[in-house]
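go over whats below:
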Amino acid sequence: MNCSYCGKELTYQQKFCSRKCMSDARIGTHVSSEIKEKISIKTKETMNNISKEDREKTNSLRKQSLGKKEIKEKMRNSHLGKKYSEETKKKMSNSRKGRKLGPMSEEHRKKISDSLKNSEIPRKHCVRSQETRDKISKKLKEYFLQKRLKSKIFTKSFDTQPELIVCDILSVLNISFKTQEKLFYVYDIFLPNYNSLILVNGDFWHCNPNKYSKDFLHPVLNITAEELWNSDNIKKAWAQENGYKIFEIWESDLRDRFLAISKIYKFLQQTPEHLVE
């Protein structure tokens, strides 16, 4: 037995070999109104027998299997090349009559705004309170300040003149040291035998509190002295939290060499290891 449409040999007793052949064979055939009515009644009965839970399950499975973009693409493609009768076109035209095109009315905008405010779904352009805005602004300022300072100061790989003076003092005292020690931040001098870090601060670059007020705006870094001090405190706090001892000395202290040597010597005496005589 062969297919009535394509002539392919059939293994079972049926009229067509596939649904495509059955559909193509029916193109152009006239279906009576009586048959259409029977099909409509049968479809309604089938739909009524399906429970609401089964419909929801079917819809959820359909949404899981297809993404939003795929669904839109499928809907769009389903209308491509489709020809509507004049009667259908007229119905579509009448259904769109009275709808305004272009900008939305104030009333419609207010409705959308109220619905978004009451919604718990996170939005890209959500309305935040002033307190939340201030918190976000503060966090962003701190983040970009640290990023800027880290790029301009904390990543330097050279020894400044005040640092070289401290290195000479340590050499005279016969203490081993490393310069520009890279930990989480870059520290000026590291004493491995004492597990200590020495910060040699320039009076200008770190805004010595004895010379500059907290409101002083640094002409190069473009930040206030108070912001710079806070950044240095964060750097020191990290070292102390990780078990390092911190010794800080200013450029102005190094002008009196005897005073500078006595300060460094006193700091080293407070450490567990004794100096090598």
Summary: The mean pLDDT is 77. The domain at 153-269 is CATH 3.40.960.10 (Endonuclease; Chain A). The first helix runs from residue 19 to 26.
